[in-house]
Every structure is written in structure tokens, then in C-alpha cells.
Write a structure and sequence with these properties.
The structure is a single chain. This protein is mainly β. It has two domains: 1-30, no CATH class; 35-119, Lipocalin, CATH 2.40.128. It has one helix and eight strands; from the N terminus they run H-E-E-E-E-E-E-E-E. The chain has one helix at residues 3-12; strands spanning 36-43, 49-57, 60-67, 70-77, 83-87, 90-95, 98-103, 114-119. A hairpin with a 2-residue loop joins strand 2 (49-57) and strand 3 (60-67). The two termini are 25 Å apart. This is Membrane-bound inhibitor of C-type lysozyme. Pfam families: MliC. It comes from Ancylobacter aquaticus. Keywords: Lipoprotein, Membrane, Palmitate, Signal. Residues 1-22 form the signal peptide.
């Protein structure tokens, strides 16, 4: 079983003792919660690409992002429109097949550091 499937299996083991192996993250969920994973590849112009995996298991909604040698896990937060995720110094905001990556250290009104769209 690869690491991604192991992660999801860990999500599905709600209430059961979870043992994470090296390189894995296990998050126990409430009884009855079901996990869904969606993988997306975004092209972001001169910024390059962003690989995203969305882990939805209400009430938990997380995403992992990989870009420019960085990897992070971000959590879904309140958004007026679309889905907004926050983690570290980044905001990842998606709507339909578009997404914007913001670096919050650049200021609240700064333009996104990457404007992206999904690719097949």
C-alpha cells in the first residue's frame, strides 16, 4: 500500500488506535466519517506547477500542496466563495478549475504569487 492509501486508510480507522509509520500522518475521525481524496495538478504560468491532494472527511477538510520543492498541509477555512485553505505563510484559494496561491508575508492586499488552473 503506498503512503497516500495508507494515509486514507488511517483516516477511515476512526476510533481505532492509529499507528503512523515513518513518513505518514494519521488523523482519527469521528465514527461514521468517510474520507474522499481528490488529486489535482495545476499549471501556474511562470511560477510552475502545484500538485494538490484534497482530503475531505467531514468535518475534516485538508489539502497537501507540493510546489518548488516545498510540501505543506493546509486546512480549509471560511471563504466567501470557493474553498480557502491556510497553512504556514500561505493561503490556497480555489474556485472551479482556478486557484490562487497567496504569501501572507507580502501583506493583506498583495496579489497572488501564483494564479493557476487545473490541467488534465
Amino acid at each position: 500500500m503506498n503512503a497516500r492509501k495508507t494515509f486514507l486508510a488511517g483516516l477511515l480507522l476512526a476510533g481505532a488506535p492509529a499507528v503512523a509509520q515513518a513518513g505518514e500522518l494519521v488523523i482519527p475521525l469521528p465514527a461514521g466519517a468517510k474520507a474522499e481524496t481528490i488529486k489535482a495538478h495545476y499549471t501556474c504560468g511562470t511560477f510552475g506547477t502545484v500538485e494538490a491532494r484534497y482530503f475531505n472527511a467531514p468535518p475534516v477538510a485538508l489539502a497537501s500542496l507540493a510546489f518548488k520543492g516545498e510540501f505543506m498541509v493546509v486546512s480549509n477555512v471560511i471563504a466567501g466563495s470557493g474553498a480557502r485553505y491556510a497553512g504556514g505563510t500561505y493561503i490556497w484559494w480555489t474556485k472551479g478549475n482556478k486557484a490562487d496561491l497567496y504569501d501572507v508575508t507580502l501583506g493583506e492586499d498583495a496579489a497572488p504569487v501564483a494564479s493557476c488552473s487545473t490541467t488534465p
